[in-house]
Specification:
Layout (H helix, E strand, L loop, with lengths): L2 H18 L3 H13 L7 H15 L2 H13 L4 H15 L4 H18 L1
GO molecular function: peroxiredoxin activity
Pfam family, one: CMD
Organism: Fulvivirga sediminis
Length: about 120
């Protein structure tokens, strides 16, 4: 199983368990997160790039993978994602570089799935 399949499988399994607990607050948080990334005054691609940059600055690898994958699925180009990576590293500083490495590795896995 590659990194993308492993991430998606684990995320789905755990989200099902979390939502299956039927906790109103957790369900509302998940719903808010989903709705925040829908089309609005900002398009979905812009929102996903913003989410990816924020995730890198906050150093959340799971969040980075999620947003990198969404960006890939939305047709963000390699050049565009690398510009966003650059902004994340500018804002977050050199502490973000290890997360950048893993984000690039994940992007390459995504590219490999379509090759």
């Amino acid at each position: 199983m590659n990194k993308v399949e492993e991430f998606n499988s684990y995320r789905s399994k755990m989200n099902e368990k979390i939502l299956g607990a039927d906790n109103k607050v957790l369900k509302r948080i998940f719903n808010l997160d989903t709705n925040a990334y829908t089309e609005g005054a900002l398009d979905v691609k812009t929102k996903e790039l913003m989410g990816m940059v924020a995730s890198m600055v906050l150093r959340c690898d799971d969040c980075i993978k999620y947003h990198v994958q969404k960006c890939f699925e939305l047709g963000i180009t390699k050049e565009q994602i690398f510009e966003a990576f650059a902004i994340a590293n500018l804002v977050g500083g050199t502490i973000v570089i290890p997360h950048l490495r893993r984000a690039v590795e994940f992007w390459e896995e995504l590219e490999g799935e379509t090759a």
